[in-house]
Automatic annotation (TrEMBL):
Composition-biased stretches (Acidic residues): 226-247
Residue ranges, annotated region (Disordered): 1-56, 203-259, 445-504
Species the sequence originates in: Hydnomerulius pinastri MD-312
Residues the record lists as binding ATP: 436
Lineage, broadest ranks: Eukaryota, Fungi, Dikarya, Basidiomycota, Agaricomycotina
Name by which UniProt lists this protein: Protein kinase domain-containing protein
Length: 735
């Protein structure tokens, strides 16, 4: 079978004429017999239209349209089911439970397939028609090889060999999200929401920027203050009268003592930053990629002008007020982890620091070839060794959180959830880079200096001598380098080539999802230089060179993201238990994977998005006020709004139920399963935001784990499993 067969006319005719095709590669015999006659006949417009339809690539993630039509489904209702059949040898062995496994994603479930075409109905007993089970191509191929049953399903074997392997799909890069948002700010789109009065007034006179739906008060820029009792380490340091006063109104306290080298210092916010929280009608990007446990901020400064952390207060009466019209109250909260998680975080931080110590000592290098075209050259290549890169962050001492009643997402018996703006060090997501133009200029200058001083000829003679093959009749060059023209190379091999003269060979191009990688192979002498260049970062304007200064203007040393902040009602312990559960969840709960699982008791494949929101830390107040309750904060990914099962198609209802069933298969009970605890948003977190607008695929997540627990016996999940089937009207409760 040839690769790409599914895109041929034969495959498409088969898919359009068979209800349950044995293979997407088969062609009806009648088509083969009449092939020559069809070519001789002139095509009518109808034939041309049909031929045009056949050229459309097959969607491997949807059931063929003709099959859906014959089964009575519309494309909007049903796109996912098992529709292929794996042929069996009538004299073959029976399929029984065994240790043979197919490809698996991170959750370890047995039935995984990269596409819908990788799932099959198969006879357990070859000559018993009614004994059908569901399996996958990779599992069946392994089992049939073990049975030596190779001839009955040759096409299916070939298809299984081409199947993609399971892989984790990262959510959209928060570094790219940061730079995209910064570009919009620098374009002046959000000047009306700047905390700088002069910027807002200038924007108000312009008709080129958006404004908020309603008026808001203009206030002079000011730094927030910290509650007096929060600045003290113990409650005994304040008197009872001071605590009572603090609980009634914000205290007049000194300004925050922020060191100059902190990314949150005011001098590191170029105009028009900082923006007023919750004023911009165009929301921040949601943080959808997990932060490693050891990189969660140790301290959280919570900006809470409405005193929402008291929870039992009533901010609704002035919830529409502007942020600038309120006196900012800043609470300090500390990251709280279980002893086991804290130990794991400490070990991870230590390991990350050791790895960073080692990697930062390895200088990257850029190979500058003597020519771009193929062929011999008398000039050697130049290996430009770059300076040490800046260290990556291995811990985050502090972050800031902004919370407002305007961002209220929901309220329950035990908690209230707000949409919050989370400010983190930008260096956590955006790395410094080297200007290639600077490297070229410095190398040219260094080359000129070396040639004038005679050092160039000396190094060239040493390089040719080190090759050890002056006659050029040696074999493979042990020091030849594959050079990536788009990036830098690590100078692990410092020897020179062995061919004479030097050769630049044609590009070697390999395709790897999702980008094209091109490498040129160079064999010949190299001369090493150390150009005096520096790494550049727009958060540090002094590092930006003249080549990039016009296009890359200064940005803050912080990045803002949207998260969900969950607060607890007074005296309730559900939030603390939920935080512990998040820490105990297996990693695959938070991961997005390619492909599909058939999750029992479901019979159709469902996608493998993350099961739960990303966990961003559990923070408790540093001190307790004597007269006022202050809630701890659970920071998680904002994953949308609760679902309405009556408005979901069958595929979506199955996907929602699969979240619960996957939760069960990992050994967990939810104990509070309801429609309100499954949320939905448009667009997959693993795709670019523009793609989410063009292809608004729904993404679902299970939430609210304050009562969840692990179980040891499978019978414990049966009741909750029935609840899920009833809620989403699935077999045997389908309406």
């Amino acid at each position: 079978m040839k690769k790409g067969f599914l895109n041929t006319d034969k495959a498409k005719r088969k898919l359009d004429t068979e209800i349950v095709p044995n293979s997407p590669r088969d062609e009806p015999k009648s088509a083969k017999k009449s092939k020559g006659k069809e070519k001789a006949q002139p095509k009518s417009p109808t034939d041309a239209d049909a031929d045009h339809t056949y050229r459309t690539p097959i969607d491997l993630h949807s059931v063929p349209r003709q099959l859906l039509k014959k089964m009575g489904y519309s494309e909007s209702e049903k796109k996912r089911m098992v529709f292929r059949t794996w042929p069996r040898d009538p004299s073959g062995k029976s399929l029984v439970e065994n240790a043979i496994r197919g490809k698996r994603a991170g959750n370890g479930l047995d039935l995984w397939g990269a596409t819908l075409y990788d799932f099959y109905h198969v006879r357990r007993v070859p000559d018993l028609a009614g004994f059908i089970t569901i399996s996958t191509g990779s599992k069946l191929a392994a089992e049939m090889k073990d049975f030596s049953e190779l001839d009955a399903a040759k096409d299916e074997f070939a298809w299984a060999e081409q199947e993609e392997f399971p892989r984790e799909l990262p959510a959209w890069d928060p570094g790219e999200a940061t730079t995209c948002y910064e570009s919009r700010v620098q374009g002046g789109y959000f000047d009306a929401f700047s905390s700088r009065k002069e910027v807002r007034e200038k924007a108000a006179k312009s008709n080129t920027v958006w404004t908020t739906p309603g008026p808001y008060q203009l206030a002079e820029e000011h730094r927030p203050s910290e509650d007096e009792d929060n600045e003290m380490d113990t409650a005994s340091e304040s008197s009872e009268s001071e605590a009572e006063e603090d609980s009634e109104k914000p205290a007049e306290a000194p300004k925050l003592d922020v060191p100059v080298d902190s990314p949150f210092h005011s001098i590191h916010y170029p105009s028009p930053w900082p923006l007023i929280p919750f004023e911009n009608p165009f929301p921040l990007y949601s943080l959808q990629r997990s932060i490693p446990l050891h990189l969660l901020p140790k301290k959280l400064r919570v900006h809470d002008p409405w005193n929402l952390l008291s929870v039992d207060g009533d901010p609704e009466h002035d919830s529409a007020a502007s942020w600038t019209s309120k006196k900012d109250i800043v609470r300090t909260c500390i990251l709280s982890l279980s002893p086991e998680s804290q130990k794991a975080a400490n070990e991870a931080a230590k390991a990350a620091a050791e790895i960073e110590d080692a990697e930062v000592m390895i200088n990257e290098a850029v190979m500058i070839l003597p020519q771009e075209e193929e062929g011999p050259t008398e000039e050697p290549a130049v290996l430009a060794v770059l300076p040490q890169r800046p260290r990556k962050l291995t811990e985050i001492p502090e972050a800031h959180l902004y919370i407002s009643p305007q961002g209220k997402l929901g309220e329950g018996h035990h908690s209230v959830v707000y949409k919050a703006e989370w400010e983190l060090p930008r260096d956590l997501f955006c790395e410094s880079a080297i200007c290639k133009t600077c490297v070229d200029e410095k190398v040219r200058g260094e080359t000129k200096r070396m040639k004038e001083s005679g050092e160039w000829e000396q190094q060239l003679r040493e390089a040719q001598k080190a090759r050890g093959t002056p006659d050029g009749d040696s074999g493979e060059d042990p020091s030849a380098m594959d050079v990536d023209p788009s990036g830098s190379e690590s100078p692990k091999k410092k020897k020179v080539g062995t061919t004479n003269p030097a050769m630049v060979t044609p590009p070697v191009v390999t395709v790897r999802e999702p980008k094209l990688i091109q490498k040129l192979r160079y064999e010949g002498p190299t001369i090493t230089t150390h150009p005096d260049v520096k790494y550049q970062n727009t958060s540090y304007p002094e590092t930006i060179c003249e080549h990039r200064r016009f296009h890359e203007r200064p940005v803050p040393r912080t990045a803002m993201f949207e998260v969900a902040a969950k607060l607890s009602m007074p005296g309730d312990e559900h939030l603390a238990r939920e935080a512990r559960n998040y820490l105990d969840f297996p990693p695959h709960f938070f991961q997005h994977w390619n492909g599909y699982n058939v999750v029992p008791p479901l019979r159709d494949p469902t996608p493998l998005g993350a099961l739960v929101p990303q966990f961003n830390g559990y923070y408790v107040p540093r001190t307790r006020a004597k007269r006022e309750y202050r809630s701890p904060i659970l920071l998680i990914e904002d994953c949308g709004q609760p679902v309405d099962p009556d408005k979901l198609c069958e595929d979506d209802r199955q996907e929602c139920a699969a979240l619960l069933f996957r939760f069960h298969h990992a050994g967990w009970l939810h104990e509070s399963f309801a429609a309100r605890n499954i949320v939905v948003q448009e667009g997959l977190p693993t795709t670019y935001p523009l793609e989410r607008m063009v292809k608004p695929t729904l993404s679902f997540r299970l939430i609210d784990f304050g009562r969840s627990r692990q179980y040891s016996h499978s019978s414990a999940r049966m009741s909750e499993e029935r609840e899920g089937q009833k809620l989403f009207r699935l077999h045997p409760y389908a309406s």
